[in-house]
Specification:
By secondary structure, the chain is an alpha/beta fold. The protein is built from 10 helices and 16 strands. The chain has one domain: Purple Acid Phosphatase, chain A, domain 2 (4-Layer Sandwich), CATH 3.60.21.
């Protein structure tokens, strides 16, 4: 009962704290306790009506969430496989969400992005506030911001970026209502995300999308995100000699350097590949985390990556994250609740790395 009342209080606060952010992105102000660390779980690619160990992952999530006393859960998409939801009264919403994540510790807000499989159903259903009348935890939008004290989470709708879904979908159907035409949608989204990130004064900036930026598993890197979204997120290490390149105008290059360095996103977290992995960028401080092991996994595919692989587990599980003013702590857990990997980052060390990455205009 206490947990239910706490959730109602949080949701009531959220209902009053949803406001337009810079440009067109909606901002949700998630209530936080002064001085307390922010704690959350991240899971992706989970909605399989409790099959493929989804229920076992959910059980372990509940136990870790209770131990950590989490504030909320983040979903990296593919919330309902294989073809999203068909209607608000689709029983898959109960069979894959309501009736699976039943632990009291998971009765917290769930912030969700859409995955490519979600776009194969009626994409507007998951965006419909009517689902929150069935289960108030479920908060899904295309792209939005969750501000939680010292952390800003930028949720980005990555499915429209993938050109193949538009030009060669095979037997799959994608619901592009509210998105087409692709070029205009992506251009506006990148503009909005860039503006919101520039405005953010949060200690930590975390971007969340469904698709991989970097990955050594089945899907590998998503080239469209590397070309279009990544420059908005990261601090790019550009040698001063590159400024004099005859292929670009000197003033334009200097503007780009300033733009890349202002946004300073610390982490990009995604699903899509059904695994758990951590990859470090070789040319910026950004860290890539894949948490896509919410159900079906074990694809048995490994491919090399240009960046530095820190950890890879080709199985089921989820990610925990704890952030305070000075440190971010990550941990991957498997289907048995065993902590497979721990990693932490000091904000002071990160600032030193970012400072060394900056290229002056002189």
């Amino acid at each position: 009962m206490a947990v239910a009342l706490a959730l109602l209080a949080v949701m009531a606060a959220l209902s009053w704290c949803v406001s337009p952010a810079t440009a067109e992105l909606t901002r949700i102000e998630h209530p936080v306790k002064d001085g307390a660390p922010l704690r959350l779980l991240v899971v992706g690619d989970w909605g399989r009506k409790a099959a493929y160990n989804q229920s076992r992952v959910a059980q372990q999530m509940g136990e870790v969430a209770e131990e950590m006393e989490i504030d909320f859960v983040v979903s990296t998409g593919d919330n309902f496989l294989e073809d999203g939801l068909a209607a608000v009264d689709d029983m898959a919403f109960h069979e894959s969400f309501v009736d699976v994540y039943t632990a009291q510790s998971l009765q917290k807000p769930w912030y969700l992005v859409l995955g490519n499989h979600d776009y194969r159903g009626d994409v507007l259903v998951q965006l419909d506030p009517a689902l929150r009348k069935i289960d108030s935890r479920f908060i899904c939008m295309r792209s939005f911001i969750v501000s939680a004290g010292i952390v800003d989470f930028f949720f980005v709708d990555t499915t429209p970026f993938q050109l193949q879904y538009w030009t060669d979908p095979g037997e799959d159907h994608y619901d592009w209502r509210g998105v087409a035409p692709r070029e205009a949608y992506i251009a506006n989204l990148l503009k909005d995300v860039d503006a919101a990130m520039k405005e953010s004064t949060a200690t930590w900036k975390v971007a969340v999308g469904h698709h991989t930026m970097r990955s050594v598993s089945a899907h590998g890197d998503t080239q469209e995100l590397l070309q279009l979204l990544l420059p908005v997120l990261k601090v790019t290490l550009i040698k001063t000699s590159a400024i004099s390149s005859p292929s670009v105008k000197h003033s334009n290059m200097r503007r780009n350097i300033r733009r890349f360095q202002e946004n300073n996103v610390d982490f990009y977290i995604n699903g899509h590949d059904h695994c758990l992995e951590h990859i470090s960028s070789r040319d910026s401080p950004i860290q890539y985390f894949t948490s896509g092991g919410g159900s079906k996994a074990w694809r048995g595919i490994f491919q090399e990556n240009e960046d530095e692989l820190e950890f890879f587990y080709d199985g089921q599980g989820f990610l925990s994250l704890e952030l305070n003013e000075n440190k971010a702590r990550f941990a991957f857990y498997d289907v048995y609740g065993e902590a497979l990997y721990h990693w932490s980052l000091s904000k002071a060390n990160l600032l030193q790395v970012q400072a060394s990455a900056r290229v002056t205009e002189e």
